[in-house]
Amino acid sequence: MRQLTESANDTPNFSKLQLSLASTPDEVREVQRLRYKVFIETMGLSGLENADGLDKDEFDAYCDHLIVRDSKTLKIVGTYRVLGPHGARQIGRYYSETEFDMARFANIRGQLAEAGRACIHPDYRSGAVIMLLWAGLAAFMRRERCEYLIGCASISLADGGQNATAIFNGLKPADMAPVDYSVTPLLPFPLGEADPAYQTTIPPLLKGYLRAGAWVCGLPAWDPDFHCADLFVLLPLANLDGRYARHYVKE
Question: What is the pTM of this model?
């Protein structure tokens, strides 16, 4: 999977986009610079600013970093990091376990792939980049023989938490995981009273997960560093919506 051949044309400037895996320390730093620009500078998270201009943590060294590069400018314009069972065993946990108790997942830990830090440059959000990143996720899961995709889907708290509350309270029963796959937030986000007239704005990543057939596994966690509420999502490949399966899960 080190050399991926997936490509697409991105409509804003008709650039050729190429999907691959970061294979050098310089490429990983380029990923971390993009994440810093999108997550910290754009969101105004002054508490996470640093002189290096990099968004990085201890999990990066154990993850594969999917990258989408604009072959015209040679810049990385999208990224997703993936932590498989082997990497999780090496570091001792999944990133999600910094926010949730995953005790109920003990019997399937060897089949979990965790996706995180989804990040797309603002100029490339037409859909082509995320499609390539999802194709890369599917390839990773085939390679690692993973049957479940997990991750944290974030909802900004810039509005004081109204949107996060409305989104969670508006989830349908079919969106919620069976009790066997429930998680408990270590630092729960305090849900407020639901306003039935409030118009929710579902983040694109969460919307994509739900459309693909993912479940939300319990109450949201509060991430004060990134000023967001996080939902733990689980996508069993067996649930994958037929349209997504035909496009991404190719034998």
Answer: 0.88
